[in-house]
Sequence to fold (608 residues):
Amino acid sequence: MTSTRRPIAFWTGFCVVLALLIVAPLVLPEFWRRFVTEILIWGLLAMSSDILIGYTGMVSFGHSAFFGLGMYGAAAALISVRPPNLWLALVYGLVAAALVAAFVAYFSTRLRDIYFSITTLVFSQIFYVIIFTWTEVTGGENGLTFRRPALSIPGLFSIPFDSNTLHWFVLAVVAVSYLVLRRITQSPFGMVLQSIRENEPRTRAIGYAVERYKILAVMLSGLFAGLAGVLYAVQNRFAAPDFVFFLISGEVVVFNVMGGIGTLVGPVVGAAFFLLLREGFSRFFTEYYLIWVGLIFTAMVIFMPQGLLGFWRRRLNQ
Amino acid sequence: MSIPLDQILIQTINGVVTGMILALVASGLTLIFGIMDVVNFAHGELFMLGAYVGVVTAVATGTFWLALISAIVVIALLGAMIQVTTLRPLLGRDPLTTILATFGLSLVLQNYALWQFGPVARNMPEPITGHFTLFYLDYPWYRIAIALLSAAIIGGLWLFLKFGTYGIWIRATTQDRVMAAAMGIPVPWVHTAVFAIGAGMAAASGVLFGPLVGVNHAMGLDWTLKAFIVVVVGGMGNLGGSIAASIFISLLEAYASLWVSPAQAVIVSFVVLILTLLFRPTGLFVPTPK
Fold:
């Protein structure tokens, strides 16, 4: 590897994309401005799940639970405290997601492969049923609505969110999360995760406490998924049980596979691709767009197992 | 808060009836998993489509039994088609890719049903309309017929696997794919046939279940999840275990719904699954591995 050139290329690419995304809301019409913000949020969720799918080799079908709990945690803070405070929502959401992630991680990491997937799926369904039926607290099927907090630093400034500032705020959170996650995957901890993916018995034989690393990986992943949930709650001003349902987890896996697992950027590309497909198809086929999205996804699983990013990379190398 | 004996008895019968339908769904799923390591996420959608084919035929022809048979045949053919086009290319890859591919298919099938049949639930006439008195209830004979018919289909499958030539091929392929191929068994076609059989069984249970609550496009999701739970609790790829687990879990849910709403009773089966995975990951109803 040409280790001197790669970081430069990476940082240039990162800055160019970041600059484009900063400028995006200034040039795009209102609808697409919202759309790009939404891609960033789903991208963060997909990125968080890539820590498990791509780096540790555990396919989680339960990310909707972490995402949803982040949403409901933020909702709790925004409804109970007047005036609504953004940072409190963030703390509540992250704590809720972290608690659930710790709980799920403790049980599910004892299992491997499809058993891990099924366990995470079932856990997310448990939370779905609880949220769906506990109407007094969670609003049941209707969910919760609340007001959007202002972007403020106590004692310094406080401005209400409009679609531009919201976009920049989301962008800042997602960009920092990306850098943190990237740093983590390149750290010794991340290396251990990757060696678990490649060969778990050998990693254990070398002397790493594989179980502890897996639990930490699930919690880390759940924390960032919860962060995405908080952002989504702030953007849309509601929390609904539909976002805890396992179809959302399935979509997250779809983002990962479409974009390319184990790349962090890939899942964001996948989320963008999926949302664009959905947008494009739903104009022509209304709510039946999932037929085509499903077909494309299935074809991609068969013919393009590395996802879009891996496919492009191989094309470029040829 | 004491629950009278008659309610417990009624719930026992209800539990066994749903348990038998579930067993029919789950035995197809476990057969598919056992033979080709495919976790079929679209199994519930095959159940749902089977129910739709059943409704359409039953309304057009007026005979329920014709509807049952045509649903089995149509969905078995669909299953064969799915296997050949989607799962055959994935053979030998990580089993997780099959979850992904069948998840994609389930999106396609579910939304196809929504598109084709609309969001309104369809009603299906019960073929047997008689009732008998169970304590203070008029209990429909049809429910008892469902349990018996499911048992008959599963029994037929078991006999076929045990004694039929093709059944022996299937069992041979389950045990050792390479050796079976070496013995001249056309393994790829055995896979296709097994997927078709599993799909047909899902369709049969869909048609049988149809008259109980009506048919809609989202009914498959629930059954996929339930069948997964049952298959894991019973031991992956273990036919007898799945049947026992189906009845066990349905009974538990039926009893639980004496105290809480049926929506919450589902949690009981989730908890059973998690406990099973933690303490007996090979399945509840299999002998302890040595």
Observations:
- The first strand of chain B starts at residue 131 and ends at 134.
- The first helix of chain B runs from residue 5 to 36.
